[in-house]
Amino acid sequence: xxxxxxxxxxxxxxxxxxxxxxxxxxxxxxxxxxxxxxxxxxxxxxxxxxxxxxxxxxxxxxxxxxxxxxxxxxxxxxxxxxxxxxxxxxxxxxxxxxxxxxxxxxxxxxxxxxxxxxxxxxxxxxxxxxxxxxxxxxxxxxxxxxxxxxxxxxxxxxxxxxxxxxxxxxxxxxxxxxxxxxxxxxxxxxxxxxxxxxxxxxxxxxxxxxxxxxxxxxxxxxxxxxxxxxxxxxxxxxxxxxxxxxxxxxxxxxxxxxxxxxxxxxxxxxxxxxxxxxxxxxxxxxxxxxxxxxxxxxxxxxxxxxxxxxxxxxxxxxxxxxxxxxxxxxxxxxxxxxxxxxxxxxxxxxxxxxxxxxxxxxxxxxxxxxxxxxxxxxxxxxxxxxxxxxxxxxxxxxxxxxxxxxxxxxxxxxxxxxxxxxxxxxxxxxxxxxxxxxxxxxxxxxxxxxxxxxxxxxxxxxxxxxxxxxxxxxxxxxxxxxxxxxxxxxxxxxxxxxxxxxxxxxxxxxxxxxxxxxxxxxxxxxxxxxxxxxxxxxxxxxxxxxxxxxxxxxxxxxxxxxxxxxxxxxxxxxxxxxxxxxxxxxxxxxxxxxxxxxxxxxxxxxxxxxxxxxxxxxxxxxxxxx
Length: 626
What we know:
This is F-box domain-containing protein. The strands form three sheets. This protein has a six-stranded mixed beta sheet with strand order 1-2-3-4-5-8, covered by helices on one side. Helix 9 runs parallel beside helix 10 and helix 15 runs parallel beside helix 17. About 6% of the residues have low confidence. The N and C termini lie far apart (85 Å). The chain is of the alpha/beta class.
């Protein structure tokens, strides 16, 4: 008989504890903590992912490749393969369609070649831990990133059709490029560095012509592929989840209607947001892709109708016996409703006697425009709002292209509110002029020696002058001295003060005066051609601006009592060296408003940053940006 070990009669404390309490694993952590661990391990969020495959370096043109026959694809160049492109294949690919193809994707770097890539590898090892972790990682990967597909790139639309149904249902942002025309300089995105130029794959996938009704091979194949893709997406997309950004540059309306038909077939794609671009914008006359202003506006209207209908923003009108009478609502309720419409812009509104060129072709004409969109003046190009599409996509602003996006924030004057009836017109005027911040530059358009603020005040309707609550004078001088005291400009400024006193409510008006000088004009007047300009030259010009500021302050003391007054000076009168703010504008503010007046407590910097924070710069000393 074998003697039993004594350890069998004395169970260890560890075995007792494990039997008494359940085992704690990684999956018992809160979901937010697990997600953070996945991201720290290398999983990305809000990242653009290109689904098309890499091509050979000596054959960048992939228009002749048939996406349904992978054996015709070229073998990719090893110099373009990065660690991120290799790891991305674990998330996206199933069985390899052809032995020589490794199914590597293009990394989202603006540099060419793997040597320039600084991106780390995706943590594909998480996909081989457990089924629960695979589900969580896949959900984050597909739901929190933006996916991009080019029909003219290697793999075409088949890279999207090859994804699983579960992956398609988890997607929240997708861009599909059926045809991208390489247009003129207006095609390039103009914006900040956070909104980069076209990706390398996007540039390689551009066509030299727009689709036409003559039915070339590209048009026939593209529409068939698009119809087949819509049949796959329709049953696999969750309602109100996917943001779809669709680009297909067209040359005529007939083919545009046929292209958009699969998008709105019953049942329609239940999209959360939708962006449709049918033309890249104005091209040079004589080009086969040339669009007239009228034809471009027709494409904008078509894209607007289909995008809003796809996103569920259009409701069918139903006649009822007891219709809703908006005019019977109390005035306070009507004003609150109008304050949540396009009558109120989150940015400052500029005024000009000559509307910007890009607004001249809009169906609704107005002399008001957002300065954020036309920062280079009325003759400059419209800037992208950077909300119409993800950061690596082409612009879909209706002011720049034959397109419309439900996420676009470009603003045009909502003239329709002023054309309903007299009651709605009066309410709209009160909301528009009292809730917006208006920006007026110093010089007039036609007469350089005439103040634009004088034209602005004289052209406003009587109710507009009476309701005006916030006005900013952007006074940037050049080398001329017409704006100095005892000049014609100062006489017109006194006339403006008379209008403010007699026809407006100065005690309810907040006046902002931006004073500065043109550094470029000083540079070229000194000599230009990369010559060093001493600081004394800039300071001498700044002293002239300071003289103008004192003259404006003295005129305000004599004529107007305002609610708020804000003076902003550019360098060197507003400097932030070593964290010490030097605000010379406060001297003039207290001189006009009194010694106890504190503009900072009244939101001097916060209001300015909220209205025109799009052009704030740390170097110019914005206290909010510091």
